[in-house]
Every structure is written in C-alpha cells, then in structure tokens.
Specification:
Elements: H1 3-13, H2 22-34, E1 38-41, H3 56-68, H4 73-79, E2 86-92, E3 97-103, H5 130-146, E4 151-158, H6 166-171, E5 181-187, E6 196-198, E7 201-203, E8 206-215, H7 231-243, E9 251-260, E10 270-279, H8 282-303, E11 306-315, H9 322-329, E12 338-340, E13 344-345, H10 353-361, E14 365-372, H11 389-408
Parallel strand pairs: 3-4, 3-5, 5-14, 6-12, 7-13
Antiparallel strand pairs: 1-2, 2-4, 6-14, 8-10, 8-11, 9-10
The protein binds zinc ion (ZN) (2 copies).
Length: 411
C-alpha cells in the first residue's frame, strides 16, 4: 500500500472540524519539515479576522485529542486558540511561483462505515474526502522535494473549508504574494466519471452563512399575555418571510436550524437560527443578502424584537483561467486520468475561489479541478467513501503540472 493511502487512513481516523485541525496540521508539518520545506503556522497565518470559530471548550477538547494521538507538542503550542493550518514554502533560485491549496477539515457527521480506519471521534467524520486532499498535498511535497526545478512553491493546508471560513483568510496571506499560478481541486463530487479530470469548473455558488439571535422578553404566558415579546413567534414569522425571498433560480436560501424558548408556559424570550444564502452571480447574491437584512428589520418593527445578524462564513465564485485549464488538461493522460473537455458546473460552494480571485487580480492564473472517482455514498453522508486509487493519480498530475509551470517562465 502506498504511503499516500497510509496517510489518508491516519487522517481519516482523526477527523477534525474547522479551526480544530491540530492533529492534521501537525502531521503535515512533521512530514514537510523532514523534506526541507520552510513551515509557517500559527497566528502569523491569520492576517484578517476569523469567522465561525468554535467555542473554547470545543477547541480545548480537540487539542487534547490531537495530543493523545501523538501530535508534536511544539506545533500544538503554536496553534492554541484554533490557529490551525499550514503554509509551507520552498524557494530554489529564481523562477515562477506556484501555489497549491489543500483543505484539512472534516464534517460533523457520525460515521457508519465499518472499515479498519474508521473515525475514532464520535460525531466527526471525513465525509467529504479532505483526508485524501491533505494526503495528496503531503505526498506532492515529498515528490517535489526530490525532483529538480527552480522557482518557488507554496503549499497551503487550509483549515475550515466546510462552512467556508478558512479560504478568505488564507487567500490573503502575504506569503502568497507574487503567485503566478494557483491550483486546487476536489476528488469525487461526481460518481459517473472514474479517473476523470474536469479541468474547468464553470460554476460554483456565492454564499453567506448567517447566525441570527432574536431577543424578545419572557413573561408568564397567560397572566400577562400582552406584556411579553415573543421571540419564537417572531422567528417563525421571519423564517416564512425569508423563504419568500429567492425570486428566481439564480438564488437559494435555507434556514437549517431554529431553537427558541425555555418552557411551555413562558413567552419565549430568545430564539436562534442558522441560515445560508446562495447566488449564482455576485449581483444576485448581494441582492438576496440585502433583502435578508431588510426582512430582519421588518420583523423588528412588526414584533418589537431585536435581531442581531452575524456572518459565520462566506465564499465567492471566480472563473478559472482558460489558458491554465487547457494546459492542465494536457497533463491528464500521463497521470492516468481521462481529460473531460466539458466544464463542470459545481452546484455547491467552495472557498478556494478566493485564491483564484486574488491571483487573477494580481496578474496570475488560477484553476480548480474535479478529480472524478467512484464514491460509495454522496458527500457528507455517513457511508461516504471513495476509491483511493485516485490519490496516486492526483499526486502525479499535480507534480507534473507544477513542474511544467515552474519551467515555463510564461510571463
Ligand atoms: Zn464538504
Ligand atoms: Zn469538500
């Protein structure tokens, strides 16, 4: 069995949710430091504010699990407080700069698979394949460290892709300045295209994640029915009004959770809900977000409640660079992949597009790939698994493409 599959299974056993990727970061850091990469981790990677950071007890429990699993205490110290993730750099003489990004985090799902590398942490599972992405990044690092090339390579191991919280922060890192080429991708996604490289993603949703707290006032439900302010009623009204907002197939909205109230005979004083908006264009998404805010204000007037609205994550779509996509397609066959010329319309959201957006604004080229392979169940399902044979092919593909770009001096 290849080292890459070994790594993937070790990561699968120790799944970690966004901003708690202590074990995963430490594993990558340990492997890459042996290979001669310069490591950057901890607070220096966080040049802008974080969204959706877990509560302190969640961070501490995850840190303890990582320690028990054998993570390097020096790495853990630097990540305390949830400053997870890693950027590794290698510079050899002069030449182009290539940045590759791999996501680290798992999903909050209880695993139902019965495999020897099953998740050891209840309620957490690598149900999206990011364990595979991280393993590919580590193996690519080893391969590149052993091969000749000149220029600079940045390997980004990004936290918190789920809930789209880490991409915006890591894409802005000053370490990535001067990136000529940016590469990232996802395995699986489509089940009918084994060993297929989609070199162009034509579509991905802009999204915002919202946490809402609705404050009313509790009183006895029947003694003073007119004196309380019913946060539950306001929340229910708000949910109904929100679902009226998407007015065409360009926008989507979902309210995923709603909790309210403390007792049967008490007017509910507080309600909390978690919602998300999506739009296929930035304009339609901005309009939806504006209407979302206006609806909250309207509910404040209608019910007398106060509503606080906090952004908990966001992602954009930025089209990949056609020239880079075409060059990538040419590398597929040698890596054992069949190149699919049709662009892939990704219906979810993905925060890698922040990197592409930045690189394009700074004059470089960026691309995002789909590596089609057999999946056992849909992404985020408790039975999710994928054909591990794709990992070796992804490593070969990224290695060949990176070296091609480094030797190209295209700009
Ligand atoms: Zn996912
Ligand atoms: Zn994913």
């Amino acid at each position: 069995m290849s080292h890459c599959i070994d790594l993937r299974r070790a990561l699968h056993r120790h799944p970690e949710a966004g901003f708690t990727e202590f074990f995963s970061t430490s594993l990558a850091a340990t492997e890459l430091s042996r290979q001669g990469w310069t490591l950057h981790l901890g607070q220096e990677l966080y040049e802008t504010a974080r969204l959706g950071v877990p509560e302190q007890p969640v961070l501490e429990a995850a840190l303890e699990r990582a320690r028990a699993a054998g993570a390097d205490p020096v790495h853990l110290e630097r990540m305390a407080g949830g400053y997870t993730g890693l950027i590794a750099t290698m510079q050899r003489e002069t030449g182009p700069t290539v940045t590759l990004r791999f996501d680290l985090d798992c999903v909050e799902v209880q695993e139902d698979l019965d495999v020897p590398w099953k998740s050891l942490t209840p309620g957490l599972m690598h149900a999206c394949g990011h364990d595979g992405h991280t393993a590919v990044g580590i193996e690519l690092a080893r391969r590149l460290s052993e091969l000749p090339w000149t220029g600079r390579v940045n390997l980004v191991f990004q936290p918190a892709e789920e809930g789209v919280r880490g991409g915006s922060i890591f894409s802005q890192s000053s370490l990535l300045q001067g990136t000529d080429y940016f590469l990232s991708g996802h395995l699986g996604i489509t089940n009918d295209a084994e060993d297929t490289l989609y070199s162009t993603v034509s579509h991905s949703m802009n999204t915002s994640k919202w946490d809402l707290t609705i404050k009313g006032e509790s009183v006895h439900a029947t003694l003073y029915p007119r004196q309380g302010i019913n946060a539950l009623l306001a929340a229910a009204d708000l949910v109904v009004e929100l679902y009226r907002l998407p007015d065409n197939d360009q926008t989507q909205l979902n309210v995923g959770t709603l909790t309210a109230g403390t007792g049967r005979n008490v007017v509910a004083g507080e309600a909390k809900l978690r919602a998300e908006t999506r739009g296929s264009s930035r304009e339609s998404h901005d309009r939806l977000n504006q209407a979302f805010g206006e609806t909250c204000r309207e509910m404040e007037r209608r019910h007398g409640v106060r509503i606080s609205q906090t952004l908990a994550g966001e992602a954009i779509y930025s089209p990949p660079h056609p020239e880079l996509c075409a060059l990538a397609a040419g590398q597929a066959e040698a890596a054992g992949l069949r190149s699919e010329p049709k662009p892939y319309p990704m219906m979810g959201s993905e925060d890698a597009f922040y990197f592409i957006d930045r690189v394009h604004r700074e004059g470089g080229q960026g691309a995002y790939f789909i590596f089609g392979t057999a999946i056992r169940a849909p992404h985020h399902n408790p039975m999710f698994d994928f054909n591990e044979a794709i990992l070796e092919k992804m490593v070969s593909f990224y290695t060949a493409l990176t070296r091609e770009l480094l030797s190209a001096l295209r700009r």
